[in-house]
Design brief:
Order of helices and strands: HHHH
Structural class: mainly alpha
Distance between the termini: 36 Å
Helix content: 40-55%
Oligomer: single chain
Radius of gyration: 34 Å
Shape: flat
Strand content: under 5%
Number of helices: 4
Largest sheet: none
Length: 128
């Protein structure tokens, strides 16, 4: 079993190494620009002034959402939906039910100990 698992692991390592090695590498050392550095900086400043370039290009800028309802109105709608039965057991909504136990912690502990003792095989002190 160990030889089989080791051979599978080595095969996976070999294929992943080949996949990483197959990435195309683009050589940029012989690049010749058609514009000067000053022209590129001027173009960047121009587009930044016109808000055509985002300050942080990695992130999508979201506009803040403004609701026309107060928190109390939203809660009232939620309660009405509960009362009408239109909001309930759907895959998008999970209703959590809080259950309070009527037994004490000591009662539950004693019950667990008794169940553990009952499930243990009965053997003598000397193993037979």
């Amino acid at each position: 079993m160990n030889i089989k698992m080791t051979s599978v692991a080595l095969a996976l390592i070999a294929t992943s190494a080949a996949a990483f090695a197959a990435e195309e590498f683009v050589e940029h050392t012989n690049f010749t620009s058609t514009r000067t550095r000053a022209e590129v900086q001027a173009e960047l400043n121009n587009t930044s002034a016109q808000n055509q370039v985002s300050a942080q290009q990695e992130f999508v800028e979201h506009q803040p959402l403004v609701s026309g309802k107060s928190r109390a109105e939203v809660r009232a709608e939620l309660e009405a939906a509960y009362a009408q039965g239109t909001l309930g057991h759907t895959p998008e909504f999970v209703e959590h039910t809080y259950v309070a136990s009527t037994r004490s912690r000591e009662d539950v502990r004693n019950e667990a100990i008794q169940a553990a003792k009952a499930s243990r095989p009965v053997t003598s002190r000397y193993g037979s």
